[in-house]
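Retro notes - structure team

What went well: the batch runner handled both jobs without manual restarts.
What didn't: labels got mixed up in the shared folder, which is why I'm recording both outputs here explicitly, each with its sequence directly above its tokens.

Job 1
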Amino acid sequence: MQVTQYIDHTILKPTTLVADIEKVCAEAIEYKFAAVCVPPPFVKKAKELTAGSAVKVATVIGFPFGYSAVEAKLAEIVLALVDGADELDMVINLIALKNNDWQYLANELNHILPIIRSKGKVIKIIIESGILTDEEIIKCCELYGVAGIDYLKTSTGYAEKGASVHAVSLFKKHLPSNVQIKASGGIRDYAFAKELVEAGATRLGCSAGVAIAQGQSAGDGGY
């Protein structure tokens, strides 16, 4: 299986250097990855570095904990769009979810979705599936599936548990066919990447993209 087309080549560490961005963008072009996912301050730079290629530029919103105010997330989204982001990966307010405040989550989505849609950009909603119950995951699939987001994404890579075949399978079973699935967090080798794609993932967020493309394990490490 050729997995490179599914990969969002990712670097989100808080100490990211310009040189790191140059490296991941060059690798994304070389291996024909779907996108690079970079910290918000580097969106403009990544757009410059990937210009003329098919590689999309993604960034994160409300990352990694998701409890930013809706107004703060909106500000982040506007800035990312101004800088040229093609895709936005937003963490939901997990505090609201864990307190069973689904109305808050619906309101959050209703505020952010129109601006992204108005610019014709892609929205990926991160629910941190590794710390949710199956019931909570299914409710997320129902809420965000009805709204017609582009992707439901498993994880930030910062929780104690990242992507799993079980979570992707649940997504696949409970999401409408027009909503795609992004698995992320702890994907460090080709075998696991292949399992996730076979379970239904159409994007893979990982920092080990090159190792995966080469069929190698990147060993232990973060997102």
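Job 2
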Amino acid sequence: MSEAMDQTRERDPLVIAESWMKDGRDVAIATVVETWGSAPRPVGSHLVIDAEGNFEGSVSGGCVEGAVVAEAAEVLADGEPRMLEFGVADETAWRVGLSCGGKIRVYVERLG
């Protein structure tokens, strides 16, 4: 395997989550399950979060990661998964040309 492929694998959120769990950390995973409009990450993108608030990966390119990390802390505390939705309220944003329009739905659950 090439060095570039090794580095990509080392940054893979799922590989990191597995490593964290082997270290005994509590870990949650956030997964993009639906997008509409200009969401910067595709369906299936992941963000993994440990109980200390460390995270790796991305579900929005930085737009909502802080809110997702906060919700993941709650998921780790109470064990209840959550469906989160972020974005504009309706499709009229596209008619008026808002470049930041769009929606993203993210499912957050505990791993392990």
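One thing worth noting from job 2: The mean pLDDT is 84.
We'll revisit the folder naming next retro.
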